[in-house]
Amino acid sequence: MPEEVLRELGGDLLDLEGTGIGILEHSHRQPPFDRVLEGALDCCRRLGGIPDSHEILFVPGGATLQFTLIPLNLLPDGGVADYPDTDIWTAKAIVEARDAVPNAQIVVPFEGKRCAYDHVPSDAECPASKGAVYLHYCSNNTVHGTQYQRLPRCADGAVLVNDASSEIFSRPMDWSKHGLVYASGQKNLGVAGMSVVIIRRDLLQRAPRKLPSMLSYAAHAKAGSRINTPPNFAIHALWRMCQWMVREGGVGEMERRSHARATLVWETIDASGGFYTPLGQASCRSVINASFRLPNAQLDQRFWKDAAKDGIDGLAGHREAGGIRASMYNSCPLPAVEALVAFMHEFKRTNG
Ligand SMILES: Cc1ncc(COP(=O)(O)O)c(C=O)c1O
User: Fold this and answer.
1) For the chain, domain boundaries
2) Residue 312's pLDDT is what?
3) What average pLDDT does the structure give for the chain?
4) Is 173 left (phi over 0), alpha (psi -120 to 50) or beta?
5) Any catalytic annotation for residue 187?
């Protein structure tokens, strides 16, 4: 998170906007928190250019909970949904969807595991199922470092459902094509344990089954994301993060910065003569997560351990994929990436 946002949040813990009471201590039904919630909704809508056709919900629980809630709220018994599998997160979403609605058909039109998740599918590789209610995809694949450069094609009458956890507000979204977009908080929105769910309002009316209220998007919408005590600090942090992104120039500027950062890393990888090997194909490389390997696992380990000694921490790849992963979320400053690239050159010189 940007240091200035962390400092703001530190102040808000002690005293929220001159009330003399911190954000954690305010009642969630009193005017100071009303202002936080309204501010967060308004700022999120302005930042993302989210149209009135879509409702914004703050739902307790991470993106993993949405893997269950999405089919429960959108997929009728016996219904069909497409789930192209492009990374470990989509694989988990498929398992959860099958458990959530056991008698629905969860079709996997593209099995990325077969190509070590090295690309996202073209339309030809990902046939849409006739009659599907929705196509669930993950626009940025956090682990293997691939990213959709265009929207996947879904069946006539179906909507797109996007897990945008690792890229929300880093590039514009075509809301007209999306029935639902969701993201967990911990990357571009601040705090883990809450998700933003942006859902077309008509889908709320068409829920296929009666659900317990905490599992129902319609119930969250009806209660204005306050069925119970909401994750007040996570909502507040999301507001501060959205305000920061607006101040910095909005989604267009976030997109420009993502490309500037990623170009530095990918160019270094491409110029390394094969010392650094990307996990993803060049046509769909992510500008958020640069995932790559060195010639062997020992060097991978030495790389991230030595980098940590130089103050560049958190580079070990995901535990299921190994290798190295440089995650460059919206608040990652360019000098941090310049330091990484300098380290990559030096590491290759001494170990290549
Ligand atoms: C694309 C994607 N989806 C889902 C998740 C899971 O999020 P959570 O841990 O909040 O459940 C992550 C976490 O990194 C992610 O990157």
Assistant:
1) 3-247, 250-351
2) 96
3) 97
4) beta
5) yes
Are 56 and 198 within 8 A, CB to CB? yes
Ligand 1 pocket, residues with Cβ under 6 angstroms: 62-64, 89, 138, 142, 163, 165-166, 184, 192
Residue-level pLDDT at 173:
98
Q: Rounded to whole angstroms, how far apart are CA atoms 239 and 105?
A: 38
Residues in the chain, how many? 352
Catalytic position from the list 12, 82, 187, 239: 187
310 is catalytic: no
Q: What is the pLDDT of residue 206?
A: 86
pLDDT (tens digit per residue) in 204-249 = 988 899 999 999 999 999 999 999 999 999 999 999 999 999 999 9
- For domain 3-247, is the CATH number 3.30.565.10? no
Decide yes or no: CATH 3.90.1150.10 for domain 250-351: yes
Ligand 1 centroid–CA 162 distance in Å is: 12
**Model confidence, pTM:** 0.97
pLDDT band for position 25 (cuts 50, 70, 90): very high
Sequence-separated (6 or more) residues with CB below 8 Å from residue 253: none
